[in-house]
Amino acid sequence: MSDNIIADLTIGDDYDIERDVEGIPEETVLSKAWLMIKDDEDDADEASLVTKEITEDEVSGVGQIMDTGADGTGHVFFQLTDADTETLTAFQRYWWGIKVLTDTDKKYTVLHGLLIPLGRIIEAEA
To answer: Domain segments of the chain: what residues?
Structure first.
């Protein structure tokens, strides 16, 4: 469970979330994945504080599906920008989750957990 608790994200910083996705059904691959950060795990998707949608195509500041999982294990990479992390409040508990869509139109929530961001100490700008 410790891999599902994010406690090293600092408000105002960029942050990458990279995870393996196990148990992808045979003859199926990942076609899309979403990362959402919410105030409460029961909040509607539209109420998410941060939403990222990825495919195999790399998009800077968003991420990509790095391995579609043809062997049963995929790999997803999401990028949170400083603007994304600015929407959070230090030391408040949030819920995050990753849902995937397969090429056979099946949706699965594959990971979820807690996020407790750290407060910003340095506000240096480039």
So the answer is: 2-115
DSSP code per residue over 22-82: E-PPTT--EEEEEEEEESSTTS-GGG-SEEEEE-SS-BTTTEEEEE--TTSEEEEEEEE-H
Question: Phi, psi (5° rounding) for residue 47?
Answer: -90, 5
Fold assignment, 2-115 = Immunoglobulin-like (2.60.40)
70 contacts 30 by C-beta, under 8 angstroms: no
The total number of residues shown for the chain amounts to 126
For the stretch 61-114, pLDDT in tens is 999 999 999 999 999 999 999 999 999 999 999 999 999 999 999 999 999 999
d(CA 78, CA 34): 9
Sequence-distant (6+) residues with CB within 8 A of 103 are 28, 29, 30, 31
